[in-house]
């Protein structure tokens, strides 16, 4: 595909890297010469300097025959105008825009359509990250939780602990331990290296285990790998910006929530909007403020300011003062691997969360969900099977007959309301939602080809 990306920041740069590795024709537009030069030296892409919403700049980037425009600059207005210009002047077939401000997204149905602003897909990073953190809070002990088929199936990552019933045993014993629960281990990462699970694979303590199960069975499977944690009750959110506010608003009816916000005016505004949340004005890196917020009795401390260093320091302090679990928003990818798994339990990368949402609209074949896992190293895909046994490489075939790319496993098949955990004898039928796990995302194009019908279906 020929794709123009507006914005060479963290999201635009990461997206360009993902798509360039899959042999797409990528051009990135930005006003920052240095950032474009760095991307151009590292990736096989084109770069154009200028304002992405200017017709001449878009034309210079090849908009006349581009398949897709992805506008992810820091300005909602630039992103929206660029999509309008691409549609009006170049009839660009597909237009995706990152829109952060709730003033726009709350009126999306009337605002974003061919008769108004012609944007096909809106990505709201704040909402994506909010939903991601909410799922982690709902599943104590999970490192990552992603939904498929409208939430009927979930892929969960957990760290296996000493003393877990299945630790030290072969995977085939899962069925003996849980005769009434069906699950599939999609991948195991041991000391950072991926293992394709077989029946005789032995789970070791400290393994990062990705498993797929129906939503109602998740806790039962987690209990086999680690001691189950009690449901969380008390949450402290450091930072009352867009993400902190959205998270508090989403969870305040189920949990005891406190928000710590350093700006007095913002704290006052939050107090007026969040009727079931305690809003405190103060610094999250101040020991006395954390003690005042009763940090020692807190189940989860979420550091969600827009300052990586402040988030990391606040999280380390909160953990030292007794917070049971800390989750930290970190925009700089270089920091993520440094801090996760030590005093910081979960490092959340807004870029990786957003990239998954963007990729699901770029993939060929009928791909409806894409999730970036393990900070971009692996990928989970939900694809819909079409055609019949003659025109499709998957329909009418049992799972053990499908020629899957190396490092790819099928975890589950969703047929209407029915969840079928993947076993060798399961036969794929038309319109099945197939959940796949790729330990090497360079194989993504091969998976897409599997789900293309004949020669013309995209």
3D architecture notes:
This protein is of the alpha/beta class and 458 residues long. The protein folds into 4 domains: 2-123, NAD(P)-binding Rossmann-like Domain (Rossmann fold), CATH 3.40.50; 129-225, 2-Layer Sandwich (Alpha-Beta Plaits); 234-352, 3-Layer(aba) Sandwich (Rossmann fold), CATH 3.40.50.720; 364-451, 2-Layer Sandwich (Alpha-Beta Plaits), CATH 3.30.70. It contains 16 helices and 22 strands. The chain has helices spanning 10-20, 33-42, 55-60, 76-90, 102-105, 108-111, 125-138, 174-177, 218-225, 242-251, 264-273, 287-292, 308-320, 333-339, 350-359, 444-450; strands spanning 2-6, 25-30, 46-49, 68-71, 94-98, 121-123, 142-148, 153-159, 183-190, 193-195, 208-214, 234-238, 256-261, 277-281, 300-303, 325-329, 346-348, 367-373, 378-384, 408-415, 418-421, 433-438. The strands form 4 sheets. The protein has a 6-stranded parallel beta sheet, with helices on both faces. A hairpin with a 4-residue loop joins strand 7 (142-148) and strand 8 (153-159). The protein is globular. The model has no long low-confidence stretch (mean pLDDT 86).
């Amino acid at each position: 595909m020929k794709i123009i990306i507006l914005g060479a920041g963290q999201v635009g740069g990461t997206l360009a890297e993902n798509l360039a590795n899959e042999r797409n024709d990528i051009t990135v537009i930005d006003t920052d010469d240095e950032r474009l030069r760095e991307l151009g030296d590292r990736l096989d892409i084109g770069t154009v300097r200028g304002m992405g919403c200017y017709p001449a700049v878009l034309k210079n980037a090849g908009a006349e025959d581009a398949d897709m425009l992805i506008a992810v600059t820091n300005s909602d207005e630039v992103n929206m105008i660029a999509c309008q210009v691409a549609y009006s002047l170049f009839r660009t077939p597909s237009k995706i825009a990152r829109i952060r401000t709730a003033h726009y997204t709350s009126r999306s149905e009337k605002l974003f359509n061919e008769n108004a602003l012609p944007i096909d897909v809106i990505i709201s990073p704040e909402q994506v990250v909010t939903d991601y953190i909410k799922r982690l809070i709902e599943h104590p002990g999970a490192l990552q939780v992603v939904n498929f088929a409208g939430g009927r199936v979930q892929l969960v990552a957990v760290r296996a602990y000493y003393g877990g019933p299945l630790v030290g045993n072969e995977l085939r014993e899962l069925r003996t331990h849980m005769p009434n629960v069906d699950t599939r281990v999609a991948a195991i990462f041991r000391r950072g290296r991926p293992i394709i699970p077989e029946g005789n694979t032995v789970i070791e303590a400290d393994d990062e285990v990705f498993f797929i199960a129906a939503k109602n069975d998740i806790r039962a499977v987690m209990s086999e790998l680690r001691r189950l944690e009690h449901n969380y009750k008390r949450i402290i959110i450091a930072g009352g910006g867009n993400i902190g506010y959205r998270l508090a608003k989403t969870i305040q009816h189920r949990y005891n929530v406190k928000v710590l916000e350093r700006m007095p005016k913002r704290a006052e505004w939050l107090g007026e909007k969040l009727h079931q949340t305690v809003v405190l004005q103060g610094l999250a890196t101040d020991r006395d403020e954390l003690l005042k917020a009763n940090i020692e009795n807190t189940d989860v401390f979420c550091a969600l300011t827009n300052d990586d260093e402040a988030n990391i320091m606040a999280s380390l302090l909160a953990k030292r003062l007794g917070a049971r679990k800390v989750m930290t928003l970190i925009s700089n990818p270089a920091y993520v691997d440094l801090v996760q798994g030590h005093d910081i339990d979960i490092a959340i990368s807004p870029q990786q969360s957003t990239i998954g949402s963007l990729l699901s609209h770029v993939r060929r074949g009928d791909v409806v969900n894409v999730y970036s896992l393990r900070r971009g190293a692996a990928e989970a895909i939900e694809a819909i099977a079409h055609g019949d046994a003659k025109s499709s490489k998957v329909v009418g075939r049992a799972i053990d007959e499908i020629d899957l790319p190396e490092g790819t496993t099928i975890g589950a098949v969703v047929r209407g309301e029915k969840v079928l955990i993947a076993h060798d004898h399961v036969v794929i039928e038309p319109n099945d939602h197939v959940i796949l796990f790729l330990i090497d995302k360079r194989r993504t194009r091969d998976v897409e080809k599997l789900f293309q019908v004949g020669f013309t279906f995209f």
